[in-house]
Fold:
Amino acid sequence: MKNKTVIATNHLSIGYSSKNSKTVIAQNINLSFESGKLIALIGANGIGKSTLLRTLTGIQKPLSGEIELNQKPLQAYTALELAQNLSVVLTEKLPPSNLTVYELVALGRQPYTNWVGKLTSVDQEKIANAIALTAIQEIVHKKHFEISDGQFQKVLIARALAQDTPLIILDEPTTHLDLHHKVSLFKLLKKLAQETHKCILFSTHDIDLAIQLSDEMIVMTQKQFIQDQPCNLIEKGVFNSLFQDEDITFDAQKGKFVFK
Ligand SMILES: Nc1ncnc2c1ncn2[C@@H]1O[C@H](COP(=O)(O)OP(=O)(O)OP(=O)(O)O)[C@@H](O)[C@H]1O
Structure:
């Protein structure tokens, strides 16, 4: 299947504005993401990763510039159309509820169900598919608060898969996970990008893992955004500019950070 551009930005400027002030977090952002790719967004704490992801998902308005989702300006989408084209996995806890894992995954079908919220056979098939792809069959009858953090992350990804959108955006999906669960979640995202041909964009602080498992990375620094394949970024020495700390350097041979 041919890769096509799912989302692209043109001279995008992101930040926060109120009545009296405007804070620019980053500007002149020109990025483009294709279907079938797993793309990691990395950068130091507070650099603006969440701000960028919130802007790309339409949760937050750009200060200026354009975002095109499937060749159409993001602001031209209705809320329902947006939910059919883009799913978001955030790290926030859910509001208190008694939902089972199955019901939570089924919520992904909301943009397609009628006003009574009845699931059609197509909806049920998409839910079953999402559950199978994320391998959470054994916990579908549990309440969502009866599962571990790692399982919960998978459930949120299953909900995004059930929503069946060409683009999935995740903000730090591996936070709070141990190494084993981080690796398995990264591999799951990689498999999903390959098998479902979706574009999966996520932010992370697990840079070593992102280098090994993502198709492309976006390195965000005070000065610039660099988007490329991990091996090219290593070759260009980009990772050394990530942290303003002489004690942390990137070992290009080992493909990981080393500390003094
Ligand atoms: N609601 C807000 N109003 C004003 N400034 C904000 C707001 N939210 C975040 N910021 C500021 O925007 C900058 C970028 O924050 P953001 O959360 O996007 O960074 P991040 O790269 O995701 O950080 P981290 O890796 O620590 O999660 C920070 O300086 C932060 O203080």
Summary: Residues 179-196 form the longest helix (18 residues). The longest strand covers residues 5-17. The two ends are 46 Å apart (CA to CA). The chain is about 30% helix and 25% strand.
